[in-house]
Amino acid sequence: MGFKVQVYIYDLTQGMARTMGPALIGRPLDGVWHTAVVVYGKEYFFGGGGIEYCNPGGTMMGQPLKIEDLGETQITEDLFQDYLRTQSQDRFRGDRYDLFRHNCNNFSHETAQFLVGKGIPQHILDLPNEILSTPMGQMLAPMIQQMTPSGTSLPSNIGSGNSAANGLANGAAGGFSTAPNTQKEVQKTSFPFKDFITFDQPLKVDGLSKKLEEFNNAQKNDDTKLTDSEVKVVLGIAKGLVRLSDENFNILTKVKKWEKSQIFPLLDILRSKCLKPSFDNSEQIKEVLRLFESNLTPESQVNAMLAARGLSNILSN
Q1: 139 falls in which pLDDT band (50, 70, 90)?
Q2: Which residues are tagged catalytic?
Q3: Which of 44, 100, 95 minimizes the C-alpha distance to 73?
Q4: 11-25, 54-68, 94-108: which range is least confident on average?
Q5: H-type alpha helices, the chain
Q6: How many helices (H) and strands (E) does the chain have?
Q7: pLDDT at residue 160 greater than cutoff 80
Q8: Residues 79 and 176 sit within 8 Å (Cβ to Cβ)
C-alpha cells in the first residue's frame, strides 16, 4: 500500500493577480503561486528558512486555493527524511532561496519527482520567467517579492511550529537540519501584530525612467506633460539626489494628473520617500496622504497596493 502525495497550491496575491496580469504579461493571471508537497500527513515547503513542515493547511496562508493529487509513493517516510536531510544541506538551503529563480515551486517539483516520478504543473514553474521577461514585470518584481513573507519560509500555526532547520539539531525524530548559518526557528504568528511593517525595497530607477518617459510621451495636454528638465527633477528625486522643495514637490506630483493606470511610478517613488523623513513640510505630507488615500480603490490593484505600502511606511516613522 502506497502513501498519497498531493501538491497544495496557494495564490500569494489573494486574487490580485487577475487584475495585475494584463499589466505584467499582457494577459490575465490566475495567481502568483506558492506550492507545498503534502505526504505522510505533513505539508513540506521551502523558503528562506530552508525546508520546513507543518500540518496540512497549517501555514499562515490557511487553506490552499487548489489541491492536486499526484499519485501514491512506495517510498518510506524514513527514506524521504533522508532525502530531505540531504537536500536541506545543499540545494535547498535557506540561503539559496530566491523568489523568482529557486523557490518553493522548484522544491515542490523536485520533491514530487522523487516521490512519484512526476512534477507539479509546468505553468507554475514557467510563471516567474514569463513575468521577468517583460519590462513591467522587471520593474514590479520587488513588489511581488513583498507578497511573500519577506522571502522567508512560511510560519506554522501549529503549536510549536516544526522547522526543518531545527530537525536533528533539536533531536526531533525523523527531523533534518540545514547548514548552521541558515538555521531559523519558525515563530508562531499572533494577532494583533503590533510591530510596524515597512516596505523598503529599493526603487528600480531604470525601469521607472522608461515608464515615465513612455507615459509622459503619451500626454496630449501641456498641463500634464513634463518638460525634459522636469523629468530630470523627478528622476533626481527617485535617486535621492534632489531635495523635495515645494517647487520640486509640485513637479513630482504633477504626475498625479495622468491616467490612473499611469501614476504607479509616482506612488512607488513616494512609497520609498516615506521610509524616512524626506519631505520639507507638513503640507507635503498631507498631500501625500491624500494621494495615497485616493488610490485605495479597486480601480487599480497595483496603485492600491503601492498606496497601502506608502501609508504603512508613513506610520513607521
Answers
A1: low
A2: 34, 104
A3: 44
A4: 11-25
A5: 17-25, 77-88, 104-116, 122-132, 135-145, 205-217, 228-239, 246-252, 264-273, 282-294, 301-316
A6: 11, 5
A7: no
A8: no
